[in-house]
């Protein structure tokens, strides 16, 4: 079945450094890739997404890249801040599909 | 704008008791609706999804059930709770023709 693998499961960085989270998807028909941030005790919230007709998308300190051939996509956070500490989930879905397939999550710690 | 509500926010129930969690969406029609469970420190497990009134798809066989009595109402139930049912229950919705999924505030369930 469809699967999304996410790495690493835990990531610790120093404030100001960059953080990269990587995901791989199995369904070649996937064409929409959202990223969610979940703070402790809160709901996951969409922070950025990318569609398969685009290779890269940036929003301030956050960027996502997509390699359709390799079925990889990544989240890049630059100039990390303590408030970036959270669990991040990648996901994949396809047009006409009912389900969004989530990765297992990455717990990011940003040390001040 | 669209809003999703879940209640209760927190629930403590004894083993063997029944459960009813409710989710409603405002400001949209014919959404796809989803129930997820998140164990402490873990990822998002899809339990049920619905693409229309009375239409329920089950992802994980267990002692939970779901119903969609109205277009924007999704209910998660159990006749007899188990200790393993403890977790953070998240309702989510997706506009029928779009891919982006949005989560409700969640219900934290503790079964003792």
3D structure, described in words:
The complex is a heterodimer of chains A (112) and B (112). Chain A has strands at residues 4-7, 10-14, 19-25, 32-38, 45-51, 56-59, 62-67, 72-77, 86-92, 101-102, 106-111. Chain A has 112 residues and is mostly beta strands. In chain A, strands 2, 4, 5, 9, 10 and 11 form a six-stranded mixed sheet that branches. The termini of chain A are far apart. With 112 residues, chain B is an all-beta fold. Chain B has strands spanning 3-7, 10-13, 19-26, 32-38, 45-52, 55-58, 64-70, 73-78, 87-94, 102-103, 107-111. In chain B, strand 9 and strand 10 form a beta hairpin. The mean pLDDT of chain B is 94. Classes of the chains: A mainly beta (112), B mainly beta (112). Chains A and B meet through strand 4 and strand 5 of A and strand 5 and strand 10 of B.
Quick gist of this model?
By secondary structure, chain A is an all-beta fold. Chain A has strands at residues 4-7, 10-14, 19-25, 32-38, 45-51, 56-59, 62-67, 72-77, 86-92, 101-102, 106-111. In chain A, the strands form 2 sheets. In chain A, strands 2, 4, 5, 9, 10 and 11 form a 6-stranded mixed sheet that branches. Chain A has a 5-stranded antiparallel sheet with strand order 1-3-8-7-6, with no helix packed on it.
Topology readout:
The complex is a heterodimer of chains A (112) and B (112).
Chain A: E1 4-7, E2 10-14, E3 19-25, E4 32-38, E5 45-51, E6 56-59, E7 62-67, E8 72-77, E9 86-92, E10 101-102, E11 106-111
Parallel strand pairs in A: 2-11
Antiparallel strand pairs in A: 1-3, 3-8, 4-5, 4-9, 6-7, 7-8, 9-10, 9-11
Chain B: E1 3-7, E2 10-13, E3 19-26, E4 32-38, E5 45-52, E6 55-58, E7 64-70, E8 73-78, E9 87-94, E10 102-103, E11 107-111
Parallel strand pairs in B: 2-11
Antiparallel strand pairs in B: 1-3, 3-8, 4-5, 4-9, 5-6, 7-8, 9-10, 9-11
């Amino acid at each position: 079945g469809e699967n999304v693998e996410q790495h690493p499961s835990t990531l610790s960085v120093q404030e100001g450094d960059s953080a990269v989270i990587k995901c791989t998807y199995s369904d070649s028909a996937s064409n929409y890739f959202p990223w969610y941030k979940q703070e402790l005790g809160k709901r996951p919230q969409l922070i950025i997404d990318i569609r398969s007709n685009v290779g890269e998308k940036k929003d301030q300190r956050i960027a996502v890249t997509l390699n359709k051939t390799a079925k990889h996509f990544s989240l890049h956070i630059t100039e990390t801040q303590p408030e970036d500490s959270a669990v991040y989930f990648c996901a994949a879905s396809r047009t006409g599909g009912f389900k969004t397939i989530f990765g297992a999550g990455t717990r990011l710690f940003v040390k001040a | 704008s669209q809003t999703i509500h879940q209640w209760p926010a927190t629930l403590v129930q004894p083993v063997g008791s029944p459960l009813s969690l409710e989710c409603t969406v405002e400001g949209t029609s014919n959404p796809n609706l989803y129930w997820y469970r998140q164990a402490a420190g873990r990822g998002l497990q899809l339990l049920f999804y619905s693409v229309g009134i009375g239409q329920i798809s089950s992802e994980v066989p267990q002692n939970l059930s779901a119903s969609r009595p109205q277009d924007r109402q999704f209910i998660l139930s159990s006749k007899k709770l188990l200790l393993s049912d403890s977790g953070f229950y998240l309702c989510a919705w997706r506009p029928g023709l779009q891919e982006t999924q949005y989560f409700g505030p969640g219900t934290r369930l503790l079964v003792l």
